[in-house]
Amino acid sequence: MDLSNPNDPLLNAAIASIITVITIIMTLIEMEDNDRRGIAREPSLIREQWRQAHMYRILTAGPNNCVHYLRMSKGAFYGLANILRSNGSLHDTRYVCMEEQLALFLYILGHKSKNRVCGIEFIRSGETISRYFNKVLGAISTIRE
């Protein structure tokens, strides 16, 4: 390999190989950065089925299940949900229905529960629990007689 000759095929192949390796390394670093930043991902279908089953158990599994879990009857729960929906202060989002938002809020209040415990119960992240708790709190505060 003649370093003084820019037309040396061996030198050109070595330079091309080095550029390829650097490009691959830069791509891997960028992919790792994107993973750390939290690229939006679709929710797991299994977790979504567990969440739906959990809400079903709370609201329909037994006559007193809703009272024990949310500290209010099923009729009162749906009445409050209808009030919040009709005055426009609370609505379904892409991944969390309004009833689940209200249920996690009532669960935290009724059981003096911590954010992470509620996250385990509702299979949600702590950030999601906190966001919807504050959203429902704001919606409840808008209710007037």
Automatic annotation (TrEMBL):
It holds the Pfam family DUF8040. It comes from the Eukaryota. InterPro entries: DUF8040 (IPR058353). Residues 53-141 form the DUF8040 domain. Keywords: Membrane, Transmembrane, Transmembrane helix. The chain crosses the membrane at residues 12-29. This is DUF8040 domain-containing protein.
